[in-house]
Design brief:
The protein is mostly helical and about 130 residues long. The protein has one domain. The protein is built from four helices and no strands. α1 runs antiparallel to α2, α1 packs antiparallel against α4 and α2 packs parallel to α4. The longest helix has 29 residues. The radius of gyration is 16 Å and the shape is elongated.
């Protein structure tokens, strides 16, 4: 389980680092003012949430493999809850949610969701 968690964490980190670099470069080239700390915070929170969800899936894989899909969906729902509790109020402090602010959270969300999905499919294949 530890080996699987570390491999997943490494892959997730690489993907998110690559996507974050491209995301930042796009914002920089487009001359869109953005706080680098906010960008990093969004990627970090998505990394942590994806890692916690996948480690939970690994822990339950042996005993409760029939529930893995449900747990995956619950994890995705929790990510949305975090968005609405943490990021939405943060982004709406100025009274408006811009497209740039929206994508600050959802670009890393979608990237981590993709990595999680591929890892879950591989996990399910090894269990069957």
């Amino acid at each position: 389980m530890i080996k699987g968690s570390l491999i997943f964490a490494f892959r997730l980190f690489l993907v998110l680092a690559l996507i974050a670099g491209m995301h930042w470069a796009y914002l920089y080239v487009s001359e869109i003012p953005i706080d680098f700390k906010t960008l990093g915070f969004c990627y970090l929170i998505n990394f942590i949430m994806a890692l916690v969800i996948f480690v939970s899936l690994l822990r339950l894989a042996e005993d409760k493999s029939q529930y893995l899909g449900f747990i995956f969906l619950v994890g995705s729902t929790l990510k949305f809850v975090v968005y609405f509790l943490v990021f939405d109020p943060l982004f709406k402090q100025d009274g408006d949610l811009t497209r740039v602010e929206f994508f600050l959270f959802f670009v890393p969300y979608l990237a981590s969701l993709g990595v999680e999905t591929v890892a879950l499919v591989k996990l399910l294949r090894t269990l069957s």
